[in-house]
Batch of 2 targets.
Target 1
Amino acid sequence: MSQVSALLWKDLVLEFRTRELLGGMALFSLLVLLVFNFAFDLRVDNLAGVAPGVLWVAFTFAGVLGLGRSFVAEKDRGALDGLLLAPIDRGAIYLAKLIANVIFMGIVEAVCLPVFTAFFNYGSISLDILVIALLGTIGFSAIGTLFSAMTTNLRARDVMLPLLVFPICVPVVIAAVEATALAFSGGLAGNQLRWIALLAAFDLIFGILCFAIFEFVVEE
Amino acid sequence: MSVTSLPRTREVDRVAPSATPLIDRVLQGALLVSFLASLYLAFIYAPTEAVQGDVQRIFYFHVPMAWLAYLSFFVVFLGSIVYLWKRDQRWDIYARCSAEIGVLFTTLVLITGSLWGRPIWGTWWTWDARLTSTLILWAVYVVYLMLRSYSSDPARGARYGAILGIIGFADVPIVQMSVVWWRTLHPAPVIQLEGGGGMPPQMLVALMVSLVAFTLLYAYLMRQRVQIEQLRSEIQQLEESEG
């Protein structure tokens, strides 16, 4: 556990020194909201159906941007080899990166959500939304961190990461959008619980699976 | 003097050229028989469906193709696990070849489904649960093939492919479930797909025979494709040891 926190602290410090990735991700999420405004011409009558999807597209697109960068620092000058040679579990490397990615994506969401509610005059910031956002972010990042480690070494790395992450994360997107829609519109609590349960199950299953499989990605 | 009129005196010419192994010939024969039978059963023997008419007959090929797709991807899953466990390259070859065949058949499922849907539903596509999850399945394994091609180092490509093979297949039931729930909450216009309730026995027979035919086709395609891939890796190893 101390290994994880040490690695995590390293990643957080690195990012907070320059904040360039966070700034870029946050701004990108706002730009996505802007583009969707033109794409859908979000008048009031369309809004409830479309808005949760818009929000989650903004989250996931900005998220993929951040995920793509998570192992770039390690690729430079063999830093990953250094990590692998150090007496730490491979799984600790994955966990630390996962938590860092969740934190970064979470910060972007914390910026994006209030702006969203202002831009579209729709939606609210409630405990429900926070839980949904957290669970969705964890699931998305669990898959994304694993594949980010994989694509860092590939030729077409920027293209491959979204191609890998989005089809696998479809359940996360569906569940998050549906749950968010219900949270915004104050719909049936039972249904919302079902989607949150699906998110939690996805997080658990793929969190464990990706954690176990990570060592196969970084082995040499 | 033309080459063909030269007397065949060399030893290698007197020995028969490598004959097709028995199992391949058995497979070829079985394929021929089963596909002929399946064509007859599907187009002539099976009764015409009451509501959809003759267009429904595409069902006898569409469903086995879907079965084949899932079978292929299950083999990818198995091959991926065994490869990561044993590092035996043969299992990686099985996984990769099965993925290719699987993508081929998933594409065919989507196309035949569209062809079937257009006259029946009046539309080429609809976002119902089954089509949506088939499309996602297709996307995952197309990306698998891309991942394999984009890895410059074959050993790494095999490893990465195995990881995606495991995660992709583990995701399949979750994708199905989430898409079905999504559709239950937002029902699309009601669509009558292939025979919901009792299918007359003749239809069942046609379907089963077609299923067998396609499964044999899978076995045959796998054998051919795996052979090619094994030859290719042999050549590569020879080239590397030469260099």
Note: Chain B is about 75% helix and 0% strand.
Target 2
Amino acid sequence: MIAFLIQTLRIAVPYLFAAAGGIVSERAGIIALTLEGFMLTGAFCAALGSHYSGSPWVGIITGIAGGLLAALLHALATIRYRADQVVVGIAMNLLAVGVTRFFLRLAFDSSSNSPRIPGFGGAELRSGVLSSLANPLIWLGLVTMVVVGWLLYRTPFGLRVRAAGEKPEAALSVGVPVKRVRWLAVAVSGACASLAGAYLALDQHQFTDGMTAGRGFIALAAVIFGKWDPKRVTIACLLFAAAETMQIRLQSLQLVPSQFVEMIPYVLTIVALAGVVGRAVQPAALGKAVD
Amino acid sequence: MTTASIDSAASDRRQRWRTHIEESILPPLVALVIAAVVGDILIIIFGQSPGEVYRQLLEGTWGNAYGFGQVIYKATTLTFTGLAVALGIRAGLFNIGAESQLASGGFLAALVGLAMPASTPTVIAILVCMIAAALGGGVVGAIPGALKARFGASEVIVTIMLNFIVLALLNYIVAAHIHVAETLHTPEIRVGALPRLAAISATFSGSAANTTFLLALAVAAAAWWYLFRTRPGYELRAVGLQPEAAEYGGVRVGAVWARTMMLSGAIAGLGGLNYVLGYKHYYEEGFGTGSGFLGIAVALVGRNHPVGVVIAALLFATLSQGGLAVNALVPKQMVDVLTAVVIIAVATAVPEVRRALAASRRREAGTRNRENGNRESGVGNRPAEVGHVEIANPGPSSQFPIPTSRP
């Protein structure tokens, strides 16, 4: 049972990080289609930093820096130049795939993975499931969601973020610098999502091509299924992770084909969007540019 | 009516046409220049000479029959997905699901091709497979359309989620029930195969190009006719420009959304024929990976016009095949980076170019007004003011100007 919980937690951590970023970005009115790309960039930059410095802590910092860089490019295009958020979001994901592959060839002369990098616990400590708890990012992942909840509902910045996502014109009229708030929100989402990527790379002790494998979209699914509310989103992340853990543990029994377990987050999201009872309603100004 | 006003009407028309051309052509050109610069930087980072890389890129694509055949093959799939995305954008809808619609169209075509007896006449077999492909894609496209019309569910999110669901479902069906042992593909279809270009002219030998490209051109022509010469196409564009105004004008917006998404999915589904009937003659897991997302780039650069889509499809097919041709010099992934740069640059350049053009027109109109004096000031102002109102919140629809031709 404890093993099950810990495994669930380990799977949930990248979802928690990325979804926390997704909440902030979407509540500020910027569609979070880019979580996947930010994660991948973060994972690659974390692997680079950790490889060349020999310290996973440096890897975390370079990972965040990489995610921030990608986030700033996204903000520049969508906020400064008011480009369509969906188009740029999709392109940012393609860009992350292309750039990481290109620099994987350049830095490590490989088209599939980096060499083994220093990381936290995980693969090298096989002594017991509890050892994986030595990874500080696991704890940071749980804390991040709490911090985001506090930020959104208990600080002036959170109030401005919510105003920017619901009624940007009203916010502007009372002097809220909506564009600057959105820039900050995108930066926060880039930092959080890149932490998710850094966690993956440091946990698996290497970067592999496309290692995020759609986790950014599962995080987005959790954000929508959790109705953009940190508490509910946390539950959604844990739920999705538990389903995955269950599937891994019961693989040998062949009860349900793995593909059907993979579908759970996506099906639940569509049901939530179309739901007759308690439908998920997005922030009113989500995806809309501001002058 | 005085001669002066007739003259000014004619010049208005010319002006509007010039505006339209400028707004359509400039952003893609700006984007390509930016992409070329980024490409140069990447090539230099990798220690190669840009001139040599671009020369090999052209030589490996348009320079020989095999490369050209591969470009045609890739452009065929991209024309279908590009048209699918463009049709959606014209109605103000974002179809991110071309990826799974393509796969499901190809899958259903392969299933039908497998099920028909070998004695079926070829023409009938091909027609049945076509219907199956359109149906496969159409059903996947209809779901987000219906959910948007009925519940207002965001088609962006639903199509993204459906990509994962449909691909997982197809993988399960193929892996669990109908794959050939040791592979990820179905058995070969018995009837309905389309001839490859290599069978017609030996110069194309080895390339995957096949007669599906004729179907792609036909669908592009049909899309143009539908959009600009039919009543439903007019409604579609009206909904894309201003859903509320269209609703007020008697258009059932929800029905248009549902219909458009289904059509869009069906077009993407037809794209599956290029691989299943034209190339390998079976369905394989992940056969069209990336074509759906590339379709978004194709639609954007082609400015959502069927002719533009065909040209843009050739462009991106050249890039994609060219990446393979220069892989010895620089990683072929450079092409993915350039594709993304082109998309971001076009998306950014469209509103910027429009604003710059509008500003320069306002200046022009301002001078004209002063020359004409106060008497005609109201009329002289019209083209600059009425035609080009700055929209506060450009959604996907208002980002992509639509030519004003009557149905």
Note: Residues 2-274 of chain A form a domain with the ABC transporter involved in vitamin B12 uptake, BtuC fold (CATH 1.10.3470.10).
